[in-house]
Write a structure and sequence with these properties.
This protein is of the alpha/beta class. The chain has 10 helices and 7 strands. 44% of the residues lie in helices and 12% in strands. Strand 2, helix 5 (109-121) and strand 3 (125-130) form a beta-alpha-beta unit. Bound molecules: nicotinamide-adenine-dinucleotide.
């Protein structure tokens, strides 16, 4: 029998492996369900058994001791794209803290596995599924693997995104197409894959991370191509809200403003200060600011909220 302690030891070993990560997926070698639950994705992946985590490790004990998070998502399964770092990882941490089993999906295997270990190390339930959202066939394989492994997804957070910054005359068709494929087409493919199961079960949450750039034609550091993709996500979300509303499935969009992540780390200090001077609260967002909004929209308290575009931007957009 796999004990809670052996799981923790297993996670510790995973963490050690990550310290000296070689760029390859490392799996634990204890005789635990952790072994043999790798995804069938083309890219290697590491999984933690969600039931094991829930039943054997007393998931939530640590969280309950912290006292600040409710566990209303207990038994729910959430897929978060681009969750190896930044906003996506904060969302994964948040939903795991609310009791969901979270599937961290990302192109970055090492960071994704590290994220699984971090969440597991604090009593959460997480697994990793590798994907390149820039390859539609890979997205379809991800959807198949996840459905085979978990039967269903209750919460889909389309978070992954890439940005394009130059003026339109500098953007090649190939760059535009890859951006649209990652930022918009993947949202369509994953929604199409998981919405039928959500409507059949009578409960579901689709939360898309767009951008204020999608409402104002770019700006900040995104350009018109990025704005087009994110504007498409906003419109698509409203359409899904309309299509799925009577089935207990909500679909909402969150538009972050400037948020400190790797995505915005290329801004110069001067650019950053200029943007901050336009934010009423006087600071950039942090990933947990966005994650808090996702946690609320995923909860039962938000069952009457759908089709909304929620700016989480410190007041930058005020109309
Ligand atoms: N940070 C901001 O200021 C800001 C503002 C507005 C909107 N957003 C949006 O928030 C979301 C998260 O952004 P972030 O700031 O955390 O960015 P980030 O670059 O820190 O993280 C993005 C994640 O997506 C993953 N990813 C990139 N390409 C991928 C691909 N082809 N397949 C799978 N995964 C891939 C990356 O590996 C990374 O883990 C994005 O959609 C972004 O457009 C961010």
């Amino acid at each position: 029998m796999f004990s809670g302690n052996s799981e923790r030891a297993c996670l510790a070993r995973l963490s050690e492996n990550f310290e000296g990560a070689q760029g390859n997926a490392e799996t634990c070698h204890c005789e635990a369900p952790l072994n043999g639950r790798e995804t069938r994705s083309r890219l290697p992946a590491v999984r933690l058994n969600p039931n094991h985590c829930l039943e054997e490790t007393g998931l939530g004990d640590g969280i309950a001791a912290g006292g600040s998070m409710q566990r209303e998502l207990n038994g729910r399964v959430a897929l978060i794209t681009g969750a190896a770092r930044g906003i996506g990882f904060a969302i994964a941490e948040r939903l795991a803290g609310q009791g969901a089993h979270v599937i961290i999906s990302d192109i970055d295997l090492v960071a994704g596995e590290h994220g699984v270990a971090r969440i597991g190390g604090t009593g959460g339930s997480a697994s990793f599924a590798a994907v390149d959202l820039g390859q539609p066939s890979d997205v379809l394989r991800l959807a198949e693997d996840v459905r085979r492994e978990h039967s269903r997804i209750d919460i889909l957070v389309n978070n992954a995104g890439v940005v394009s910054t130059g003026p339109v005359e500098t953007v090649e068709l190939e760059e535009f197409q890859r951006l649209v494929t990652i930022d918009l087409t993947a949202v369509f493919l994953l929604t199409k894959a998981f919405l039928p199961d959500m409507t059949a079960s009578g409960w579901g949450r689709i939360i898309n991370i767009a951008s204020i750039a999608g409402q104002q034609g770019g700006g900040m550091f995104g350009n018109s191509c990025y704005a087009a993709a994110k504007g498409g996500v906003i419109a698509f979300s409203k359409g899904i809200a309309r299509e799925a509303g009577r089935s207990g499935v909500t679909c909402n969009t969150i538009c972050p403003g400037l948020t400190d992540t790797a995505l915005t780390s290329t801004l110069t200090d001067a650019q950053r200060e200029q943007i901050i001077s336009t934010i009423p609260v006087g600071r950039p967002g942090e990933p947990h600011d966005i994650a808090g909004a996702v946690g609320f929209l995923a909860s039962d308290e938000a069952s009457f909220i759908t089709g909304v575009t929620l700016n989480v931007d410190g007041g930058f957009m005020r109309y």
